[in-house]
Each structure stands twice: as C-alpha cells, then as structure tokens.
Amino acid sequence: MTLAPLPRLSVPGLDGAAGRATAADAGRPRGSLVLHRIEWSTLLFFAALFVLMETLSKLGLIGYIGGWTEALILRVDESDRLAVALIIMIWVSGITSAFVDNVPLTTMMVRVVTSLGTHPTLNLPMEPLIWVLSFGVCLGGEFLYNFITGECVAHE
C-alpha cells in the first residue's frame, strides 16, 4: 500500500504576512522575535485554570455535580423535568462562574450537560440545556469584576 503525497496547502496572504514579519524583524537583534511579544502570563493563567478544572474532574467533582443534578431532576414529575433542569443549570452555572473563570467552567459543565442530555431515564433535549448553560456562564462571569476574562488581559 502506497500513500499519496499530501497536497501543498496555501493560504492567500499568508506568504506575504510571513514576509512582512520577517522584514520587520530584519533590523532588530536576533532575540526580539515574535515569541517575546506573547503575553506568557495570560497564557499560563488560562493553562492553570484548565489544569485546575481537569484536576477537579479527576477528583470526581464533575461526576458528583452531575449525579446530584440527575438525582434532583429524577425526583420531579416527568412533565416538569425540563423546566427544573433548566433552572438548576442556569443557577449552578451562574453562581459557579461568578467565582471560577467561565472559560474552564464551561468545559467542565459541558460534561454535566452531556450526561444530562444522554441519560435514558431523564429523556431531556440537549439544545435547551446547552443554551441555558451558555446564558448562565456568561451572566455569572460578569458578577465579579476580577474574574472577567477580558479584564484580566486589558488591565495587565
């Protein structure tokens, strides 16, 4: 079995941008490349947040939140389950994102929403759960000024 060669991919304007970046750094010392312009503190901040969320996942917090939410929804009458699920999701995601950054929290809560949407007994539609998660995380993220992602970058 032989593999066909990969086609050469070209993005219009990319060659010109690379040429301009090289020409802009041509007169500068070798150490002042694009890597020195990257805000490493911001990247490390987000990396640490994602590590924190994955650690909480490995410790079982996400499974606990999902199990607690499923048990609470199962206690309600079947005709009211969607409404209760939406109310729980908007409040849990909103209050939590007021104290934890909303970007990694969303990655954590997507797992909870997925488990709720695929649970055979709950029989909840996925789309309203995703929308309510989006609204809760976005609105809760604006609660405290210190945890707004854009403000972390703007005030640095």
UniProtKB/TrEMBL annotation:
Any single Gene Ontology cellular-component annotation: membrane
Localization in the cell: Membrane
Hydrolase recorded as keyword: no
Residue ranges of every copy of the Citrate transporter-like domain listed in the record: 33-136
Coiled-coil segments: none
The protein's name in its UniProt record: Citrate transporter-like domain-containing protein
Topology of this chain in the membrane: Multi-pass membrane protein
GO biological process, one term: transmembrane transport
Entry keywords, A to Z: Membrane, Transmembrane, Transmembrane helix, Transport
Highest taxon in the source lineage: Eukaryota
The organism of origin for this protein: Spodoptera littoralis
Membrane-spanning residues: 40-61, 82-100, 129-148
InterPro entries given in the database record: Cit_transptr-like_dom, Diverse_Ion_Transporter
